[in-house]
Amino acid sequence: MQSGVYCKIFKEVSKESMSDEKKKVDNKRTIDPAALTVLDRNDGQIETAYDRYVKMQPQCNFGRTGVCCRICLQGPCRITRKSSKGICGAHGYTIVARNLVRAIAGGAGAHADHSRHMIYTISEMLEGKAPDYGIEDPDKLRRVAERLGLSVDGKDDLELLGEVLKLAEADFSKMDSKPCKWLETTVVEDRMKKFDDCNIQPRSVHTTISEVMGQTHMGVDADPVNLIFQGLKTALADYIGMHIATDLSDILFGTPQPVTTEANFGVMDPDMVNIAVHGHNPLLSEMIVRVARDMKAEAEAAGAKGIKCMGICCTGNEVLMRQGVPVLTNFLSQELPIMTGALDAMVVDVQCIMPGIRAVAECHHTRIITTMSHSKIPGSYHIEFTEDRAVEKAREVISLAIEAFKERKGKPVDIPEVKNKVTAGFSTEALLDLFAAVNPDNPIKVLTDAIESGQLRGVVLLAGCNNLRVIHDESHSTVIKGLAQNNVFLVSTGCVAGTAAKMGLMNEEAVEKYAGEGLKSFINMLNEANKDKLKEKLPLVFHMGSCVDNSRAYNLMTLMANQWGVDTPKVPYAASAPEAMSEKAISIGCWCVTLGMPTHVGVVPEVTGSALVNGIALQIAEDVYGGYFMWEEDPEKSVEKILNALDERTWKLRVHKQAAEKYETALSATW
Ligand code: BF8
Ligand code: SF4
Asked: Cα 600 vs. chain centroid, distance in angstroms?
């Protein structure tokens, strides 16, 4: 039965994707004017991801639909019309489900790597072995400690941090079935009950990732539903790891507050030592930005006006949010700044770093500097970052960039003159501060009231990457403009926030240009109420940070749910990843659904080879969790689908509230 349904879907997906590819594929798949300028100038001479995407066509439809299994050495086994099962007898649905949950584990593993590094550094710091780090935000430490149920009175900061750290370590590695603290204290009560009922409470981050790898080994779990529940448990473990990373980063480096800077290639200055920090981990990038300020004299001695740090991907988001460091570019165009001839060093840590940067740098003077023992690129410089000598390592990195500048000095560079003003720095705390200027007693009510009155249609979290399967930055831009026009309050993280920054959608001019009347009046009300403390007016899209900071966006949803006294599936709040790419994005999407969000994905994930798995994602998930996926590659149709999802929730919430008032009963718990 399964294979018959599968074949029909498989045929449709193959036909559709092939004809779409034929229509669209060339090596200028971007709407970013700076990226286009560099690509035009290069005309395919130096190979980039845009060229490799063309060469890669047509891509394998077995992989694309998730029906290729390479889990054991008898494979690869592919589900075809001739064979509806792998050699071991695994059905298509088992293969698709296994591939999906392994991808979730990959995403969770990457985020865990990030937060484990934070935990490790703090533990070294507490033992006096990481002298360059300290507590930047003791208030956040106290807020986190209180939320975790720790008593804070009479304790000094280091003592309290030690206690928070113990709880973080337990959430990472404990084997008992007590709830994880970072889940229990950040979701509404009904969600925890739901997780118990479905048996998807993670024991801990590491345990769950390890469980999923065992469960998906050859010859273990063949039940696709059971596999998917384990996948959702892993997605929750991912959420825990991400939330720990956000909290610990805020404690160490400060909780973001509004900050204004610029974005896109035009932020490079030919007369300065240009350094891009790229990757995800703020432990190194924060140090580089701080040390760069102290090394101005060395740069001047080399003939430069100073040192300019810029960000790519999420480590860029981290230093943008906390230090106001300009955004150079986002994931897909990461190779291109090197081709301007103006970038002296690209310092990378972990995740989303294309190995291709090295080959591009070979044609230029740019130093590619890897910094993590488990993330190297052959042929690059490697300066191993260590917690005990963080400043010293940052100095080494910057010295290498200064050397590269000396080599470049006097030579022509070609920087596209494209840059846009950006106002970022909207942690949950910063948003609540803005709302508190309107309603000091109950800040979140400012947002929920605006939705109840119809001024706003809901909230959307724009998250995720870039992906050459759609046009770079086009899906992001179209979805942002479409939702803004329809009065949706937009929060954002990751590379879609990068698009908004680069494309001029993250400043006050964009509010004037693209916001519908309701959204405009809401933002202007906040501007007016906060005019004494805001240096710049508020933007169209509120940047909440890097991808781990999707935890902040979920905190906002939890606050809204608590204000209404409902579980999260009743809240008019959706997520959208118009250009999703990484395993991390898959994992985040899965926890968004499990935590109750309608979740749009603009690139169809590799699950369409099984009608069963696809159906669970699109429909059955809603019955169980209230959240569900929407696959839609057309950005305009995506806007319609997201708006429908918000409207359905707003309408139901209104009807349920009216009924509760009329009959003097509690609000219906259904969604
Ligand atoms: O963690 S959005 S391409 S940079 S995975 Fe990567 Fe995707 Fe960008 Fe950030 Ni998130
Ligand atoms: Fe093939 Fe089964 Fe091995 Fe997968 S686990 S490669 S389906 S034999």
From this structure: 14
